[in-house]
Amino acid sequence: MNSKALAIALAALIVTPAVAQTLGGPEIESLIGDKRVLLSTPYGLELPLRYGAGGEVSGDISGFTMASMFTPSETGRWWVESDQLCQQFPTWYNGQTFCFAIEQTGQSSISWTRNDGLSGTARIEG
Question: What is the pTM of this model?
């Protein structure tokens, strides 16, 4: 391949957006089960959640300044229902259940949309 063709091919790769793939139930379970998910925040912090293979989800925000106003760590449960990730904590979010549509945007990154319209991104660690 000559240098002009190579430059065009590389430029196409740079400007071509990644295609997000909406995940179904088994794919969600495989992607996050027994993994740590770091939710991106508008403040540049990442909030860690650990999704256990047995359906437990635990979060710990004790390292954040504002955590003193909330329960700093808590364990709830997670499950997949209608191709969405659902979770519920005893006191976080007033014990309300939220479900999320998940799109995989990269090897270890996702975007999510909560059933109330809130959305964001996260990265996944093994």
Answer: 0.77
